[in-house]
Amino acid sequence: MMLNTPDQIHQFRRLTLLRGLKLEAEGFQVKRPPSCYSVVKKEFKLKGNKAKVLEQFTKIVNDMKGST
Fold first, then answer.
1. In this structure, what is the dihedral angle of CA atoms 29, 30, 31, 33, given to the nearest 10 degrees?
2. How far apart are CA 46 and CA 52, in angstroms?
3. Are the C-beta atoms of 24 and 36 separated by less than 8 Å?
4. Which tens digit of pLDDT belongs to each residue from 7-56?
5. What pTM does this model have?
6. Strand, helix or coil at 5?
7. How many whole angstroms separate alpha carbon 54 and alpha carbon 19?
8. From residue 37, how far is each of 5, 6, 67, 68 by CA, in Å?
9. CA 4, CA 40: separation in Å to the nearest integer?
10. Which end of the chain has fewer CB atoms within 10 angstroms, the N or the C?
11. Would you state the pLDDT for residue 29?
12. What share of the chain is helix, strand, coil (3-state, %, to 5)?
């Protein structure tokens, strides 16, 4: 698989952050900051605990995936 456009690269990054956030919400602990949780909260200006941020970010990623 080759990611050629900036949109493809950004979508891959969002999917990677989503996967990491899911793991953190299940209890996986990050040894080196920043965590996916903190990155997502900061970049997408989301508020709440891990479960609420995961729910909001999943919706954002799915909406962006559908629009491309």
1. -150
2. 9
3. yes
4. 999 999 999 999 999 999 999 998 889 999 999 999 999 999 999 999 99
5. 0.89
6. coil
7. 10
8. 26, 23, 24, 24
9. 24
10. N
11. 92
12. 70, 0, 30
